[in-house]
């Protein structure tokens, strides 16, 4: 009897857990507008007959497939630190227009096109990351930027994007080469949160010779006038920039109990040789 009770209790916990996952709030980066085109980010994303993870799979779509969002669902599914609504979408495959439901976490949160390449920005997974300093494990989202030509993956890079709290907003832009030699252009992928004290992350990525090269990640966080930590790059085309290098500038302030400001500043110079960068 005790074994049966334990089995039933475990089953009940699993059902409750599944329900919590299915009705979680969506992260802001996964909010997509109706009647707007989006791109599939994951490889072979499943299309279902209804907005439910248990619904029958009717199709699967490759990375970079274009879909038209018809309607946002009323419930969300949470996987790890990623929570997104279901979306009813239409798409063309093999010359036929089809419809179905896709989980928003399988869509790119930003995409751009330049010089015959499609660039996709998405949140690919959640991992457990160990913090040895505080002897704890916490959830960490991993983002990916992919360079595509049609359905062919040309290059990709991955980087941290913090926890779910940092997924309120996302931007994805193409910038100049910032006068870094042999670089065609630069991509910038960013995520940030709504509340004070939630870090935002900026990831600069160089594109050259059909290869994506991720620069050191920038993190910015602050809480009103109590403290802030700001990081930014000074490129060769910026004021104070130097040729064939980029500078990571850090500014930090913390106000103590006596309302005194303690400030820190630092500069790190990375030398760029046209292929790789090294800390000077």
UniProtKB/TrEMBL annotation:
This is SH3 domain-containing protein. It comes from Chryseobacterium camelliae.
């Amino acid at each position: 009897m005790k074994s049966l009770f334990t089995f039933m209790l475990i089953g009940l916990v699993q059902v409750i857990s599944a329900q919590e996952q299915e009705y979680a709030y969506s992260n802001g980066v996964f909010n997509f507008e109706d009647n707007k085109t989006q791109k599939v980010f994951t490889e072979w994303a499943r299309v279902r007959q209804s907005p439910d993870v248990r619904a029958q799979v009717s199709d699967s779509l490759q990375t970079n497939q274009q879909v038209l969002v018809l309607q946002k669902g009323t419930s969300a599914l949470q996987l790890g630190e990623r929570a997104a609504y279901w979306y009813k979408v239409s798409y063309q495959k093999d010359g036929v227009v089809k419809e179905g439901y896709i989980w928003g976490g399988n869509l790119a949160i930003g995409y751009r096109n330049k010089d015959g390449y499609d660039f996709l920005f998405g949140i690919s997974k959640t991992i457990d990351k160990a913090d040895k300093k505080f002897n704890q494990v916490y959830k960490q989202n991993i983002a990916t930027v992919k360079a595509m030509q049609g359905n062919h993956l040309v290059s990709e890079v991955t980087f941290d994007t913090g926890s779910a709290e940092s997924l309120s907003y996302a931007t994805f832009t193409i910038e100049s080469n910032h006068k870094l030699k042999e670089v065609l252009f630069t991509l910038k992928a960013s995520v940030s949160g709504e509340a004070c004290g939630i870090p935002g992350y900026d990831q600069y990525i160089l594109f050259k010779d059909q290869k994506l090269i991720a620069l050191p990640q920038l993190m910015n966080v602050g809480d009103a006038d109590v403290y802030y930590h700001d990081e930014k790059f000074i490129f060769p085309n910026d004021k104070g920039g130097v040729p064939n290098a980029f500078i990571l500038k850090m500014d930090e302030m913390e106000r103590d109990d006596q309302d005194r400001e303690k400030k820190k500043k630092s500069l790190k110079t990375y030398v760029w040789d046209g292929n790789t960068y090294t800390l000077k």
